[in-house]
Specification:
Blueprint lengths: L8 H4 L3 H22 L1 H9 L21 H10 L14 E8 L5 E7 H18 L6 E4 L7 H13 L2 E3 L6 H10 L4 E4 L1 H15 L10 E4 L8 H11 L2 E8 L3 E7 L6 E3 L5 E6 L6 E2 L6 E8 L10 E11 L10 E7 L4 E3 L2 E3 L1 H9 L5 E8 L6 E2 L3 E7 L7 H15 L3 E7 L13 E2 L1 H5 L3
Parallel strand pairs: 3-4, 3-5, 5-6, 6-7, 15-18, 17-21, 19-20
Antiparallel strand pairs: 1-2, 7-8, 8-9, 9-14, 10-11, 10-12, 12-13, 13-14, 15-16, 17-19
Helix pairs in contact: 5-6, 8-9, 9-10, 10-11
Length: 447
């Protein structure tokens, strides 16, 4: 490997033992800080019967209690603006970000100057892993305001030396103009937007999306870019390499990202985050071994403002491997979906992204756009699972396609589905995160 194949060679190629020793030292310091400055964790650990001295080795982390998003929301509601889990002096906070959960109420995240520096370096490392280089011109077709991966992506991309073009969302017409004028060769966006913009280019400009000259698509914020059939369609649409990243609004904007080998997202942040995988039902810590599936849990290592201890992300992931031809040693995974989005059909766990993968595999007979329609909120669903899918022909004349999709869903996912085919363009398109499930409660709310 050439020296410039890594942004931080020592961290990115460290052995498992070297990473473990580093994390043990950093976590000991972080716990000292938490026990000294965070009323939230002082109280939480005391209630769990855990003391600072109970941590000696990295594996002792499993003895500490989990932190949930619901606890953070309650903390902020009772003690605004950042809750009792703030550990820094308010005078040292330099920026506020937020995320919106299913309740629609903002959850705020603060950072100090040191936190911002750490976020920038980790995010830069993640973009570099995906293939970002100094010669690139990157259009940022995602949020740039309170979105955690907005301003941090700007700082990270600029720190590598690449050109950052802050397009933002809702500006597809403008993108058509500026991409060729600025010789943009890369785009950072959600996979939903990459699909949406390809359709927009064909419809509004009468162009093949490949004519715009994008060669790199850095995708994230939702599962999709790592789904084989979805990735294949995006790469076919754009003639570009598609890689994905995974982060968390409460922990860091991008923590995992995929190298050009495209064999899973590498863990890029052993010096900033401890990434555990747990059984979401029992809470048992699982090994980082190929084939292991579970929920990601994050612990801060160098955070000042709102450090978190064993934060349950609700991201359901599968470990794909622990080595790579690129030379990076961070374990690799893909995100299957959110544990709170998972559906249960007669005891079988089904993720909406898996349904999308099956339907997308029928391209060009289908567009890959789907919507799962639930009569009740879930997660329990009585069979058959109702799936609306766009086809590229006449739905009324596509009975054979409907049956083939239903058969493949049954064979692949072990659940029965009733597929309704609709015309191309009948389902909504999303410039940010796609919404694959339509629940009965949303109809009542007028959504």
């Amino acid at each position: 490997m050439r020296p410039n194949d890594y942004l931080d060679r020592k961290i990115e190629t460290a052995t498992a033992k070297e990473s473990e020793r580093l994390q043990q030292v950093l976590l000991a310091r972080q716990l000292d800080y938490l026990f000294a400055r965070s009323e939230f964790y002082q109280e939480k650990c005391r209630a769990a019967g855990i003391r600072r001295k109970d941590f000696r080795k990295l594996y002792d982390l499993a003895r500490f209690p989990f932190t949930t998003k619901e606890e953070l929301r309650a903390s902020q509601a009772a003690h605004p603006p950042l809750g009792r889990h703030i550990a820094a002096d308010w005078r040292d906070v330099i920026r506020i970000h937020s995320s919106t959960g299913t309740s629609g109420k903002p959850s705020f995240v603060g950072i100090t100057r040191r936190d911002a520096k750490g976020w920038t370096r980790l995010t830069a490392r993640s973009f570099y892993t995906q293939g970002l280089r100094k010669a690139d011109v990157v259009v940022h077709a995602a949020g740039l305001t309170l979105f955690v991966a907005g301003l941090t992506s700007k700082d990270a991309i600029e720190s590598v030396g690449a050109v950052f073009v802050p397009l933002g969302t809702g500006a597809s017409e403008k993108a058509l103009t500026i991409i060729p004028l600025l010789r943009v060769n890369a785009m950072h966006c959600t996979p939903s937007y990459a699909a949406y913009f390809a359709d927009f280019v064909r419809r509004e400009a009468g162009m093949d999306p490949r004519e715009l000259g994008l060669k790199k698509l850095f995708c994230g914020a939702e599962p999709g870019a790592g789904i084989p059939a979805v990735r294949a369609k995006l790469e076919q649409d754009w003639g570009a390499r598609v890689t994905e990243g995974l982060g968390n609004a409460d922990m860091a904007p991008i923590i995992f990202s995929e190298c050009p080998e495209q064999s899973g997202m590498h863990f890029n942040g052993p010096d900033y985050v401890v990434a555990e995988i747990i059984d979401p039902q029992t809470g048992e810590t699982l090994p980082h071994e190929a084939g292991v599936t579970g929920e990601l849990v994050y612990t801060s290592l160098q955070r000042e403002c709102v450090p978190l201890l064993r934060f349950r992300t609700r991201d359901r992931v599968q470990v794909l491997g622990t080595s790579c031809a690129c030379g990076r040693t961070g374990f690799k995974l893909r995100c299957i979906g959110r544990t709170d989005d998972m559906l249960i059909v007669l005891g079988v766990n089904v993720f909406p992204s898996a349904i999308k993968d099956v339907v997308s595999s029928f391209h060009p007979a289908t567009t890959g756009e789907i919507q799962i329609v639930l009569d009740k909120p879930g997660p329990g669903v009585a069979p058959p699972l109702k799936v609306v899918a766009e086809c590229c022909g006449d739905p009324a004349a596509s009975a054979a396609l409907k049956l083939e999709i239903e058969r493949k869903i049954k064979a692949t996912l072990s659940v029965s589905a009733s597929v309704e085919l609709v015309h191309t363009g009948a389902l909504p398109r999303y410039e940010m995160k796609g919404q694959l499930v339509k629940r009965a409660s949303e109809d009542k709310a007028g959504i």
